[in-house]
Amino acid sequence: MTSLLEALQYSCSLDPNAKRSLFLQEKVHLLRQMDDLQRDIDHKIRQYASNFSDISTESTQVLIRRVIRLRVSHIFPHNDQIAEEIDAQNEQWRLEIQLEDSKHLATYFRKIIVKCDASDTNIFAVEWTNYQKSSQEMEKLEITRSGLIPNAIVIQLVPTHISERYALSRELKEIIGEHLQRNSENDTNVDAFTKKEILVAFWEYVFHRNLMKEENPSILECDEKLKVIFNACKSVPYASITIALERHLFLQESIDIVYKVKDSSSQSFELKVFVPNEICKRKREIRSEWEQLRQKQEIRLMQLEKHRFNTEKQLLEVLQRQQWMRHFALNPVEFMRKVEHSQKADKEVLINGRQSSNTASQDAQFHQPWAADIISDIQAIPEASLLNGSKGSI
């Protein structure tokens, strides 16, 4: 590109017409600016992509664990009095649930179920959800009830982002409970584990008791405890173990905590929940912005490329026309003789092409700079007129 611009610049300097030379030099200057702009855009896009790729791979996790503290408290004006001295019909007590980091409850939970007295089926549980806009802005959940306050209140917290954790049946927990407690990365106060943790603990149990058959490693030999899990089977294929364990796993969607009223008037619970990774979210936004920028730059570059092509074409046509006129000025007779000879050759090729489709094509003849207008006129003339040499030839 640079060599072409230099050649055009040099040709412009040789043009004796000052006004035309100035016009051509402006066009060449515009082409230089377009070329510099394209290089600058390419450099910025490469730099942007390089900075984007430097983001830590740890930020690719969509959800991350976060420790939160949930504070539960109650207000009852007669905590020190015995139940017989209290008028249960007229007295009220209030339960409050809030986060210690002053965030909205909807930030971490999509549902909260409060069971004030689990032993009494006539008392309905209180359920809060974050589906309504007013609930999404709530920082504290307050529940007011009449009568005596229960000794224990069960609170079920359903996180907004649930990780797949499973509670174990009593039989399975007796077998692998020891291995689970040692290897688990349990992030809540709930006795639930991931499938990976459960399977690892199970295979540790199998390994330590040497239950793999030597003659057939794909078969698990069951001891008395495993026979309870696998319906009294003496041996189980490895491929069936995961399926057989499914009936002993129970998906835990909620975090259950028990608030004991008699211990104190308030209690804090440390929970670990999953929240969206802000870095990952920002990374997706950057990727989207970068993709939009890349598409816009591609469209802009296509427009610039098209404009540059048209400008170069115009410049070359002007320079070629100048060259023709310079040759014509130096030797007009010889120049016109060559033009006439070229036109006749093009006319013969055209006539021969119409007469026989097998005639070899001589496309090079039609590439003569002065032949374009001539040939377009000849194509509009009937074949008989061309053969008779009637008017129409130049």
UniProtKB/TrEMBL annotation:
The DM2 domain, residue ranges: 161-251
A Pfam cross-reference name: SWIB
Xref: InterPro entries: SWIB_MDM2_dom_sf, SWIB_MDM2_domain
UniProt cross-references to PANTHER family, sorted A to Z: SWI/SNF-RELATED MATRIX-ASSOCIATED ACTIN-DEPENDENT REGULATOR OF CHROMATIN SUBFAMILY D
Name assigned to this protein: DM2 domain-containing protein
Organism: Albugo candida
